[in-house]
Amino acid sequence: MSSFFADIVSTIFPAAHAEAPVTTEDEHASAGSSDEPEPEVIEQEEKEEEEEEEEEEEEPEDIMPALEEECANSKACEPAKHHFEECVARVTKDIEEHEAKGEKRAHGEDCVEEWFHLAHCVDPCVAPKLWSKLK
């Protein structure tokens, strides 16, 4: 009976045999040489690295963070920023007190609401400045 099931399984799932990887003559010749790459390969890799660095250098600086900071410090957004900073100080103090006592902090206050108030003040200030510099 067990041979019956073995025959069925071998029919449905034929045995897979791994084959040895095919090697070319170049690989056989290089197998005997040292593991160091050839000079042409090194030069090509260096050129690719230089091209990548040039591409990174050509990327323009993002001006949005500077504009956001400028708008957050403006007189119009001063109250929202003040409330956000006070909240961050309160939450940080609460976290530090719980860590000092070795307690896990239960769900407490977060500053999401204050952050959104600040963002709603900053975004309309940033938008026209950003678009005028991007044009």
What string gives the helices and strands in order?
A: HHHHHH
Which runs of at least 5 residues are low in confidence (pLDDT < 50)?
none
Dominant shape: extended
Radius of gyration: 32 Å
**Main beta sheet, described?**
none
Strand content: under 5%
The computed structural class is mainly alpha
Could you estimate the helical fraction of the residues in percent? 55-70%
Counting DSSP H or I runs of 4 or more residues, the number of helices is 6
Mean pLDDT figure: 79
Distance between the termini: 80 Å
Q: How would you classify the quaternary structure?
A: single chain
Question: In total, how many beta strands?
Answer: 0
Could you characterize what this model shows?
The structure is a single chain. This protein has 135 residues and is mainly alpha-helical. It has six helices and no strands. Helix 4 crosses helix 6 and helix 5 packs across helix 6. The model has no long low-confidence stretch (mean pLDDT 79).
Provide the fold topology.
Layout (H helix, E strand, L loop, with lengths): L1 H11 L12 H7 L7 H20 L5 H9 L5 H24 L10 H23 L1
List the main descriptive attributes of the protein structure presented here.
70% helix, single chain, 135 residues, mainly alpha
